[in-house]
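Allow me, if you will, to draw on your knowledge of protein folds for a short while. I have a record of one protein: its chain in single-letter code and its fold written as discrete structure tokens. Could you please explain, in whatever detail you think fit, how the structure tokens follow from the sequence? The record follows directly beneath this note:
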Amino acid sequence: MIEPSPRTLGGLMLLFFLLTAPGLGQENSTDRFPDLKPKPPGTARWEDPLQDPDAGEDTGIAEPLAWNPKPVAQFVWRPGPRKELVLHGTLPVPDTFEFAPAGCSPIGIRMQGREGPPAAAQVHAVAHDATGRVQVIEVLFPIRLPGDRTQRGPLRFDVFTGAFPLPKPAPEPESRSRLMGAETSPYLTTQDVFGNTYRFDLNPDPEALGVVSRNVLKSGFASRQWKLAGALMPFRPGEGGAPLPHMMSVHAYLTTWGASNLVSLDLRIHNGLTAASG
């Protein structure tokens, strides 16, 4: 089953906090958030990563190459009925932000109350300034809650900076592979006033019906995403008249989440390929 957009996944909300931000009741934004005040060029807003002598206990998580044990932000999430999902949010970053070396993530996540080092998050740049500097990153992090969890309040996940080894992607679930197979993948259909049926296949395959282009937007252990662009093409003729060359155009975003069976679909339907009729 295709479930709704991940934008509302798990009722997740992102809570920023700055450790040096007293006076949160004041009106002046630079007083409320001191980090928004102008900084001299090259001044770090996040502390440089530090080696943590206490990291490395046997938690099943690879020991970070380096990390700052002081969290820089926090995600707050109120859990729903699902036990396995992917924490998903965005995070503004300072001028000094840099991606980690190959095979590592610059962001680590750890649930409050847990011991040991943070685990790597999947990270993508989603906004840049005019010079190309990254301003906002997308953070994705798989979560598996214990089956006997009794806590009913919101869960808090601290965000750390450093160099966190990336895990290997989980095997593709068989049910998800069947869903996205060439013969069983979902598709869009519509009809015109003459009864002609048009179709657009949602298989991440450039040869699928109606697909003009296919691009991989994300490929990682927490999430994978494809963008398909094309049009609803004639598929079955009606009895009232000849079909059009095509119907509406489609931008489809297919996203898989960790090792779960969930496949999300976001659609943008437009008529940008239709010439003016005069």
